[in-house]
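Tutorial handout. Part one gives the primary structure; part two gives the three-dimensional structure as tokens.
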Amino acid sequence: MTENTELSRPHRHTVTIGGVTYDTDESGVHRHAYGTPTPPPPTGAALGLYVPGEDPDKIAALATALGVTCTVENVACWADASGQAACELTALPHGADGAVTPYRVMLAVGNVDQAQATAIAATLMAAGKADTILRPLWELNAPSFPWGFTSLTAAQQIAAFRGIVATFRAVPNMQFRFCWNVLAGTRGMWAGPGRTWDDSYPGDDVVDLVGIDVYDDGGDKAAICSPALAFAVAHNKPLAIPEWGLNGTDDVAYMDQIIAMIKGTTPPCALQVYFNGSLQDLTTPAYAASKAAYTKAFG
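Part two.
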């Protein structure tokens, strides 16, 4: 895609979710919503799935059970240069027949050093996954991982992200894309003490997508995510939702909020991946209403 130079933010941005327009100020703080909700338009967002163990056969079975067509598999590589998170990516998920996952890979990578990034890139290229979408330092605005705000300053996060991208881009014939991926909270976007949720943004020249992970942990997700959506608009970057899912209950209201974000956001969402972990498993009979909402929206 064509890269854009860094855009200076005007005083206000608006973003539309499911027919409702949210207005944010220059700091990304949600101010108010106006407009009348309308049915969301058709979406062109690529649909992805995650299952524990990352078995592509289980991805295929899940897609069949949900009545959807999956094109992206979410994979995590827990390599971290500090040693706080173990293991490198030595092979991509394989099915029972030994074949590498047939899906486009969205790969989460931690604070990998140059040698680790080079090895990961070689693994991807050897597997024919030159079009992998990478999420360096995913959820870096939260305290969840060793590269979050409790461990790294904004300047360190920016330097790490840019270094990882530079290493991957040095690979001949690569088509990698890079997602700057933040986490939504219960009352707003996550931010550490003295930090803002977006102070780790590494620059338009190294970001292809702005990603938001948004789970069913309470709050009005449309309002909570609106600053990040407006940020994507201001930087002329497509939106991705690399992780979303339930949280132990059948919650159609949450499903409807995220579906509206995926299908009714202006500009449209480019990619969404449902995280089908134990608390989010849409094949659980107790989640029948949420499963029906998902299948109706994307089947």
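Part three, for discussion. DSSP finds six helices and eleven strands in the chain. The longest strand covers residues 177-183.
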